[in-house]
Protein backbone atom coordinates (compact mmCIF):
# COMPACT_ATOMS: atom_id res chain seq x y z
CA UNK A 1 0.00 0.00 0.00
CA UNK A 2 1.24 3.48 -0.76
CA UNK A 3 1.51 6.11 1.96
CA UNK A 4 -0.16 9.48 2.42
CA UNK A 5 3.06 11.19 1.41
CA UNK A 6 3.23 9.02 -1.73
CA UNK A 7 -0.10 10.56 -2.73
CA UNK A 8 1.02 14.15 -2.13
CA UNK A 9 3.08 14.80 -5.28
CA UNK A 10 0.72 13.05 -7.74
CA UNK A 11 -2.31 14.79 -6.22
CA UNK A 12 -0.67 18.20 -6.28
CA UNK A 13 0.70 17.65 -9.80
CA UNK A 14 -2.84 17.01 -11.02
CA UNK A 15 -4.10 20.10 -9.21
CA UNK A 16 -1.30 22.19 -10.72
CA UNK A 17 -2.52 21.12 -14.17
CA UNK A 18 -6.10 22.06 -13.31
CA UNK A 19 -5.76 25.26 -11.28
CA UNK A 20 -3.43 28.04 -12.50
CA UNK A 21 -3.71 29.78 -9.13
CA UNK A 22 -1.94 26.97 -7.23
CA UNK A 23 1.81 27.03 -6.56
CA UNK A 24 3.85 24.42 -4.66
CA UNK A 25 6.74 25.63 -2.47
CA UNK A 26 9.36 23.12 -1.29
CA UNK A 27 12.51 23.16 0.83
CA UNK A 28 14.40 20.26 -0.85
CA UNK A 29 12.28 17.63 0.90
CA UNK A 30 9.89 16.03 -1.59
CA UNK A 31 11.35 17.70 -4.66
CA UNK A 32 11.92 14.43 -6.58
CA UNK A 33 8.18 13.82 -6.71
CA UNK A 34 7.69 17.09 -8.58
CA UNK A 35 10.27 16.63 -11.36
CA UNK A 36 7.68 16.38 -14.14
CA UNK A 37 5.40 19.00 -12.61
CA UNK A 38 8.34 21.42 -12.40
CA UNK A 39 9.00 20.94 -16.11
CA UNK A 40 5.35 21.57 -16.93
CA UNK A 41 4.96 24.50 -14.52
CA UNK A 42 8.43 25.93 -13.84
CA UNK A 43 6.99 29.12 -12.38
CA UNK A 44 4.63 27.27 -10.01
CA UNK A 45 6.91 24.62 -8.47
CA UNK A 46 9.47 26.49 -6.38
CA UNK A 47 12.28 24.91 -4.35
CA UNK A 48 13.88 27.40 -1.94
CA UNK A 49 16.50 24.97 -0.62
CA UNK A 50 17.03 24.14 3.04
CA UNK A 51 15.64 27.47 4.24
CA UNK A 52 12.46 26.79 6.18
CA UNK A 53 11.81 30.38 7.29
CA UNK A 54 12.11 31.44 3.66
CA UNK A 55 9.85 28.54 2.69
CA UNK A 56 6.97 29.93 4.74
CA UNK A 57 7.75 33.56 3.95
CA UNK A 58 7.84 32.86 0.23
CA UNK A 59 4.50 31.05 0.49
CA UNK A 60 2.97 34.09 2.17
CA UNK A 61 4.44 36.37 -0.49
CA UNK A 62 2.84 34.26 -3.20
CA UNK A 63 -0.47 34.54 -1.35
CA UNK A 64 -0.05 38.32 -1.36
CA UNK A 65 0.26 38.07 -5.13
CA UNK A 66 -3.12 36.32 -5.34
CA UNK A 67 -1.89 32.72 -5.64
CA UNK A 68 -2.83 29.69 -3.55
CA UNK A 69 0.47 28.45 -2.02
CA UNK A 70 0.91 24.84 -0.90
CA UNK A 71 3.97 24.73 1.34
CA UNK A 72 5.57 21.38 2.19
CA UNK A 73 8.29 19.86 4.35
CA UNK A 74 8.63 17.76 7.52
CA UNK A 75 6.37 18.87 10.38
CA UNK A 76 9.26 19.88 12.63
CA UNK A 77 10.62 22.15 9.87
CA UNK A 78 7.22 23.43 8.73
CA UNK A 79 5.51 24.30 12.02
CA UNK A 80 8.14 24.45 14.76
CA UNK A 81 11.22 25.97 13.13
CA UNK A 82 9.50 28.78 11.15
CA UNK A 83 6.64 29.31 13.62
CA UNK A 84 7.22 33.06 13.69
CA UNK A 85 6.72 33.20 9.92
CA UNK A 86 3.53 31.11 10.17
CA UNK A 87 2.26 33.42 12.92
CA UNK A 88 3.17 36.72 11.27
CA UNK A 89 3.49 36.17 7.51
CA UNK A 90 0.23 34.26 7.23
CA UNK A 91 -1.68 35.04 10.41
CA UNK A 92 -0.86 38.68 11.11
CA UNK A 93 -1.17 39.62 7.45
CA UNK A 94 -4.49 37.79 7.10
CA UNK A 95 -3.27 35.55 4.28
CA UNK A 96 -4.46 32.10 3.28
CA UNK A 97 -2.39 29.11 2.29
CA UNK A 98 -1.96 25.38 2.75
CA UNK A 99 0.78 23.90 4.94
CA UNK A 100 1.33 20.19 4.24
CA UNK A 101 3.65 18.33 6.60
CA UNK A 102 5.25 14.90 6.53
CA UNK A 103 6.92 12.77 9.23
CA UNK A 104 4.18 13.52 11.81
CA UNK A 105 5.10 12.69 15.41
CA UNK A 106 7.76 10.04 14.87
CA UNK A 107 7.50 8.60 11.37
CA UNK A 108 11.28 8.50 11.03
CA UNK A 109 12.64 7.56 14.46
CA UNK A 110 16.18 7.15 13.09
CA UNK A 111 16.14 10.87 12.28
CA UNK A 112 16.13 11.59 15.99
CA UNK A 113 14.22 14.20 17.96
CA UNK A 114 14.99 16.94 15.42
CA UNK A 115 12.69 15.15 12.98
CA UNK A 116 9.83 14.51 15.43
CA UNK A 117 6.94 16.90 15.98
CA UNK A 118 4.22 15.55 18.28
CA UNK A 119 3.41 19.10 19.40
CA UNK A 120 2.68 20.55 15.94
CA UNK A 121 -1.12 20.60 16.21
CA UNK A 122 -0.99 22.00 19.73
CA UNK A 123 1.30 24.76 18.49
CA UNK A 124 -0.98 25.55 15.54
CA UNK A 125 -3.81 25.71 18.08
CA UNK A 126 -2.30 28.89 19.51
CA UNK A 127 -3.11 30.66 16.23
CA UNK A 128 -6.52 31.83 15.05
CA UNK A 129 -8.46 30.53 12.10
CA UNK A 130 -6.48 27.47 10.98
CA UNK A 131 -8.29 24.39 9.70
CA UNK A 132 -6.39 21.22 10.67
CA UNK A 133 -6.77 17.94 8.75
CA UNK A 134 -5.28 14.70 10.14
CA UNK A 135 -6.06 11.98 7.57
CA UNK A 136 -5.74 8.35 8.55
CA UNK A 137 -5.39 6.78 5.09
CA UNK A 138 -3.91 7.77 1.69
CA UNK A 139 -7.39 8.01 0.13
CA UNK A 140 -8.44 10.42 2.86
CA UNK A 141 -5.23 12.41 2.42
CA UNK A 142 -5.98 12.86 -1.27
CA UNK A 143 -9.54 13.99 -0.49
CA UNK A 144 -8.48 16.39 2.24
CA UNK A 145 -5.69 17.88 0.13
CA UNK A 146 -8.32 18.68 -2.48
CA UNK A 147 -10.52 20.32 0.17
CA UNK A 148 -7.57 22.30 1.50
CA UNK A 149 -6.53 23.71 -1.87
CA UNK A 150 -10.13 24.53 -2.81
CA UNK A 151 -10.82 26.33 0.47
CA UNK A 152 -10.75 29.82 -1.03
CA UNK A 153 -8.22 31.92 0.86
CA UNK A 154 -8.46 29.99 4.11
CA UNK A 155 -5.51 28.87 6.25
CA UNK A 156 -5.22 25.06 6.29
CA UNK A 157 -2.74 22.62 7.85
CA UNK A 158 -2.68 19.04 6.50
CA UNK A 159 -0.74 16.50 8.61
CA UNK A 160 0.48 13.51 6.56
CA UNK A 161 1.87 10.41 8.25
CA UNK A 162 3.34 7.02 7.45
CA UNK A 163 1.03 5.62 10.13
CA UNK A 164 -2.29 4.71 8.57
CA UNK A 165 -5.43 2.65 8.95
CA UNK A 166 -6.08 -0.39 6.79
CA UNK A 167 -8.94 1.26 4.91
CA UNK A 168 -10.11 4.77 4.16
CA UNK A 169 -13.42 6.37 5.07
CA UNK A 170 -15.69 8.79 3.23
CA UNK A 171 -14.45 11.99 4.87
CA UNK A 172 -15.76 15.43 3.98
CA UNK A 173 -13.26 17.81 5.57
CA UNK A 174 -15.63 18.86 8.35
CA UNK A 175 -17.60 16.23 10.28
CA UNK A 176 -16.63 13.43 12.65
CA UNK A 177 -17.89 10.05 11.46
CA UNK A 178 -19.76 7.64 13.80
CA UNK A 179 -18.05 4.27 13.41
CA UNK A 180 -19.48 2.33 16.35
CA UNK A 181 -22.42 3.00 18.68
CA UNK A 182 -22.54 2.18 22.38
CA UNK A 183 -24.13 3.31 25.61
CA UNK A 184 -21.17 3.88 27.92
CA UNK A 185 -18.70 6.53 26.91
CA UNK A 186 -17.46 8.15 23.71
CA UNK A 187 -14.02 7.50 22.22
CA UNK A 188 -12.79 9.91 19.54
CA UNK A 189 -10.13 8.34 17.30
CA UNK A 190 -8.08 10.91 15.40
CA UNK A 191 -6.65 10.01 11.99
CA UNK A 192 -4.22 7.06 12.03
CA UNK A 193 -5.36 5.96 15.51
CA UNK A 194 -8.69 4.52 14.33
CA UNK A 195 -7.55 0.91 13.80
CA UNK A 196 -5.90 0.80 17.23
CA UNK A 197 -8.98 2.32 18.87
CA UNK A 198 -11.35 -0.13 17.18
CA UNK A 199 -9.20 -3.03 18.36
CA UNK A 200 -8.96 -1.53 21.85
CA UNK A 201 -12.73 -1.05 22.17
CA UNK A 202 -13.77 -4.35 20.61
CA UNK A 203 -16.55 -5.78 22.76
CA UNK A 204 -16.93 -2.59 24.81
CA UNK A 205 -20.22 -0.70 25.08
CA UNK A 206 -18.74 2.51 23.69
CA UNK A 207 -19.42 4.90 20.83
CA UNK A 208 -16.45 5.52 18.52
CA UNK A 209 -16.20 8.71 16.48
CA UNK A 210 -13.61 9.08 13.73
CA UNK A 211 -12.05 12.52 13.34
CA UNK A 212 -9.89 13.54 10.39
CA UNK A 213 -10.63 17.28 10.59
CA UNK A 214 -10.03 18.36 14.18
CA UNK A 215 -10.05 22.13 13.72
CA UNK A 216 -12.71 23.39 13.56
CA UNK A 217 -13.71 20.77 16.13
CA UNK A 218 -17.02 19.03 15.41
CA UNK A 219 -18.69 19.88 18.73
CA UNK A 220 -22.13 18.92 17.42
CA UNK A 221 -21.03 15.36 16.68
CA UNK A 222 -19.65 15.01 20.19
CA UNK A 223 -22.81 16.37 21.78
CA UNK A 224 -25.00 14.04 19.68
CA UNK A 225 -22.88 11.06 20.72
CA UNK A 226 -23.08 11.92 24.41
CA UNK A 227 -26.89 11.97 24.31
CA UNK A 228 -26.94 8.16 24.22
CA UNK A 229 -23.44 7.26 25.43
CA UNK A 230 -23.01 9.62 28.37
CA UNK A 231 -20.54 12.46 28.86
CA UNK A 232 -17.35 10.51 29.57
CA UNK A 233 -15.11 11.19 26.55
CA UNK A 234 -11.73 9.77 25.57
CA UNK A 235 -9.68 11.38 22.80
CA UNK A 236 -6.96 9.25 21.19
CA UNK A 237 -4.64 11.35 19.01
CA UNK A 238 -1.44 10.62 17.04
CA UNK A 239 0.01 13.88 18.39
CA UNK A 240 0.68 15.32 21.84
CA UNK A 241 -1.61 13.86 24.50
CA UNK A 242 -4.31 16.33 25.49
CA UNK A 243 -4.17 18.38 22.28
CA UNK A 244 -7.95 18.28 21.83
CA UNK A 245 -9.19 17.93 25.40
CA UNK A 246 -9.91 21.67 25.64
CA UNK A 247 -12.04 21.42 22.51
CA UNK A 248 -14.10 18.64 24.13
CA UNK A 249 -14.45 20.71 27.29
CA UNK A 250 -15.72 23.63 25.22
CA UNK A 251 -18.19 21.38 23.39
CA UNK A 252 -19.64 20.11 26.70
CA UNK A 253 -19.16 23.25 28.78
CA UNK A 254 -22.78 23.32 29.96
CA UNK A 255 -22.82 19.63 30.94
CA UNK A 256 -21.11 17.68 33.74
CA UNK A 257 -18.47 15.62 31.93
CA UNK A 258 -15.08 13.97 32.13
CA UNK A 259 -12.35 13.92 29.47
CA UNK A 260 -9.27 11.71 29.07
CA UNK A 261 -6.66 12.71 26.49
CA UNK A 262 -4.40 9.95 25.16
CA UNK A 263 -1.58 10.52 22.71
CA UNK A 264 2.16 11.03 22.47
CA UNK A 265 3.82 11.74 25.81
CA UNK A 266 6.11 14.67 26.52
CA UNK A 267 9.06 12.52 27.53
CA UNK A 268 11.66 12.26 24.79
CA UNK A 269 12.40 8.69 23.71
CA UNK A 270 16.12 8.70 23.02
CA UNK A 271 16.45 5.27 21.41
CA UNK A 272 15.70 5.18 17.71
CA UNK A 273 13.66 2.00 17.44
CA UNK A 274 10.86 1.84 14.90
CA UNK A 275 7.39 3.36 14.60
CA UNK A 276 5.69 0.39 16.27
CA UNK A 277 8.11 0.56 19.18
CA UNK A 278 7.38 4.27 19.65
CA UNK A 279 3.63 3.62 19.52
CA UNK A 280 4.03 0.94 22.18
CA UNK A 281 6.25 3.15 24.35
CA UNK A 282 3.59 5.88 24.30
CA UNK A 283 0.80 3.40 25.09
CA UNK A 284 -0.86 3.85 21.71
CA UNK A 285 -1.31 0.20 20.76
CA UNK A 286 -4.56 -1.68 21.32
CA UNK A 287 -3.69 -3.40 24.61
CA UNK A 288 -2.55 -0.36 26.63
CA UNK A 289 -5.31 1.77 25.07
CA UNK A 290 -7.94 -0.74 26.16
CA UNK A 291 -6.57 -0.78 29.70
CA UNK A 292 -6.65 3.02 30.00
CA UNK A 293 -10.04 3.39 28.29
CA UNK A 294 -11.74 0.79 30.50
CA UNK A 295 -9.99 2.16 33.57
CA UNK A 296 -11.47 5.57 32.80
CA UNK A 297 -14.94 4.49 31.72
CA UNK A 298 -15.31 1.87 34.43
CA UNK A 299 -16.69 -1.70 34.51
CA UNK A 300 -20.00 -0.67 32.94
CA UNK A 301 -18.22 -0.20 29.60
CA UNK A 302 -17.51 -3.94 29.42
CA UNK A 303 -20.23 -6.05 27.83
Word description of this protein:
- With 303 residues, the chain is α/β, with parallel strands linked by helices.
- It has 2 domains: 156 residues, Rossmann fold (3-Layer(aba) Sandwich), CATH 3.40.50.970; 121 residues, Rossmann fold (3-Layer(aba) Sandwich).
- 37% of the residues lie in helices and 21% in strands.
- The strands form 2 sheets. It has a 7-stranded mixed sheet, sandwiched between helices. It has a 5-stranded mixed sheet with strand order 7-9-8-11-12, with helices on both faces.
- Helix 3 packs parallel to helix 5.
- The longest helix is centred in the N-terminal third of the chain and has 15 residues.
- It starts with a helix and ends in a 6-residue tail after the last helix.
- 50% of the residues are buried.
- The mean pLDDT is 97.
Amino acid sequence: MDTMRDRFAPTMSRILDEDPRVVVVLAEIGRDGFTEAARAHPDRVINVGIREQLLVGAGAGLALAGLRPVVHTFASFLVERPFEQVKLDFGHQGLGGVLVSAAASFDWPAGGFTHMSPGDVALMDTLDGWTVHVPGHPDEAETLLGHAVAAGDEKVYVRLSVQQNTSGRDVDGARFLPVRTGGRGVVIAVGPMLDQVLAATDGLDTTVLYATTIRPFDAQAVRRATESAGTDVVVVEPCLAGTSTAAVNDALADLPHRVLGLGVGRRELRRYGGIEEHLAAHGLTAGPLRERITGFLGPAARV
